[in-house]
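Standup notes, structure subgroup. Blocker cleared on the iron/sulfur cluster input:
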Amino acid sequence: MPNQKEISEAIKILQEYLSQYRKTTLNRESKDKKRYSPYQTLISCLLSLRARDEVTEIISENLFQVAKTPEEMLKIPEKELKKIIFKSGHYNKKAEAIRHVSKELIEKFNSEVPDTKEELESIKHIGPKTANIVLAFSFNKQVLPIDTHCHRIPNRIGWIKTKTPEESEQELMKIIPKEYWQDFNGIFVLFGKKVCLPISPLCSQCPIKDYCKKIGVKNSR
Ligand code: SF4
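Run returned:
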C-alpha cells in the first residue's frame, strides 16, 4: 500500500504546478457551477471522446445554442446534428450516441439525467467514465472519473498496479484521500497532457519526479 502522506504531498505539488494552466472544459464545470445542466455535461462528455478539449468546448457551445434538452436535441434532424458536431471527430457514432441517450432519458427517466451510477450505466453509450463525470461534476458525488491519463499516471508512479481504468478506479478509491477526489480527474488529465505524456513523458522537468518509480517508462525526456 503506498504511503498516504506521499500521495497527498504529490497531489498538492501537482495542484500548485498546474494552476498555471487552464483546466479542461468538463473540469472547469465542477468549479464553475452551474454553467452546464446535467444533460449538457453528459452530452459534452460524449462529444469529448477522442477529441481535443478546445474542440469539445466549441462544439458543445454550438450544439447547446440549438438544443439544451433531450427533446430539443431530438428535434434536430440527424444530418444537421452531424454537421454541427462534425469537427469533434467520429461524428456518426457520436450523433447516434447523443440521439440514443436523449431518447432513453425521455422514455425511461422523464427527461432527467439520473444521479446514480447504476441508472446512468443502464443507458447504452454511457460507460463508467462518463457516468462518473456526470456524478462528480453535476451532482457532487464522491466518485473518481478515470480516463486514460488517470489510469496511466498512477501506474507509472507506482501507486497502483492495474490493467484497466475500471480496476484503477477501485484501487485509487482505496488510496486517494477523499479531499482530493473532486479535483483528481482535473489534475491528472491536465498533467497527462502537459508533462506525463503517454509517449516520452517530460520526466526531467516533472514536479513530482522524486515521488515517481517511472514504472514502464522506456523513453523519457
Ligand atoms: S517522473 Fe515522468 S513518469 Fe513519473 S510522473 Fe513525472 S513525468 Fe510521469
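Discussed briefly. The pocket of iron/sulfur cluster is lined by residues 153, 156-157, 195-196, 201-203, 206, 208-209, 212, 214, 217, 220 (CB under 6 Å).
Next: hand off to the docking folks.
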